[in-house]
Amino acid sequence: MITANAKAVHGADQPFTSTEIERRDLKAQDVLIEIKYAGICHSDIHSARGEWGPVQYPFVPGHEIAGIVSQVGPEVTKYAVGDRVGVGCMVDSCGKCAHCHDGEEQYCEEGMTGTYGSVDRYGQYTQGGYATHIVVTQDFVVRIPDALELDAAAPLLCAGITTYSPLRHWGAAPGKKIAVVGLGGLGHMAVKLAHAMGAEVTVLSQSLKKKEDGLKLGASHYYATSDEETFKTLANSFDLIINTVSAKIDINAYLSLLAVDGTLVNVGAPSEPLPVQVFSLIPKRRSFAGSSIGGIRETQEMLDFCAEHGIKPEIEVISADRIDEAWERVMASDVKYRFVIDISTL
Ligand code: NAP
Ligand code: ZN
Ligand code: ZN
User: Which of 150, 176, 205, 288 yields a CA-CA distance of 20 to 30 A from 29?
Assistant: First the structure.
C-alpha cells in the first residue's frame, strides 16, 4: 500500500482534519500521480454532506486533480514519470459495454467508478484528490497540455468537461443563442466555452453583482433572475440553456425562455426534485435534459481545446487549511470562480 496525506471530513457537518489514506500498490496499468492542485467542486460538498445519499467517513473529496506522474506500472504505455496529467470524476469503468466502447465511460452500464465515494474494482473505497497522491489506471488519466498551468487546469477536469460536453452534444456554434444559469464554477466555464464555440451567450444570475465579470468572460448579455422582467424580456428566445445551479429553482420559469425545439440541460445537481409542468414543454416542443461530466476522450479534447483557445478558469488558489472557509464561500455563491487547493500546503 502507498500512504498519502489527505484532508478528510469525518461527518456531514464536520470540519476538515489531516489524515493518512492508503492507495493501492501499482497494478500493471496503474499510474501514481503526485497531486499538485485540486479544485473544489460543489459536488464535493453535496457528497460529503450526504445530500446525494449516505457516504462513508472519513471522506476525502476532490475530483479536479492536476499533478505529475511519479511512478508507472510495468504495462503503462501512455504516460511516463514526469508527465503533467489530470484526473477527473471517474477512475474506472467496465471497459466492455457499448458506452465504454463509445468513449462515454460516465454512462457505463455497470456504473463508472467515482474518484471518491465509490468502491473500486478491487473492493477498495475510493478517496479523492484533496490528497498528496492518487493511483489511477492509465486509461482514466488525461494529459495536461503545456500551455495550461497545473493550477488552472485542475478545474477543467470537472467544471470544464461538464459544460463542454453538453455544449458539444447540443451543438453550440455560431448562430446559437445560449443561456447559462448560475455564474459559479461550472457556469463561468460554460460562458467561456460557449463563447469560444461561437455562440451568443447570456448569463442568468441571481443578481447583477457579477455583470462586469460575466461580460468579460464572454457573455453578450447579462440578466438578474431576481427581476421578474427578465423572464418577460427573454421569453421563447434560447436554443439551449445550461442550468448549473446547485439548488432548487423554478425550472418552469426557465423552460419558458426556450425557443421552439430548445433544450434546457440540467448539469446542476440539487438533491430536491425540480417539478416540470408538461405545458412548459408541449407548446414549443421543448426538451428538459441532463448530462453527466464527459468521457475520457472528450475530456482530453476539451483540455486541448482550452489550450488552443487560451481558455482557463478564473481561480483562487488557497492553502489546505482554508478548505472549510472556501466551502462556506461556495455555499454562499461567493466564489470567483473556482477555489483550487495548493496540495503542497497539505
Ligand atoms: P457553484 O460554484 O456553487 O455555482 C453554482 C451557482 O449557482 C452559484 O454561483 C450561483 O450563481 C447559483 N446559485 C446557487 N444557489 C442558488 C439559488 N439558491 N438560486 C439560484 N441560483 C443559485 O457550483 P459548481 O461547482 O459550479 O456546481 C454547480 C452544480 O453542478 C452543483 O449542483 C454540482 O453538484 C453540479 N455538478 C454536476 C455535474 C454533472 O456531471 N452533471 C458535474 C459537476 C458539478 P449566481 O450567483 O450567478 O446566481
Ligand atoms: Zn465536480
Ligand atoms: Zn462500461
Answer: 150
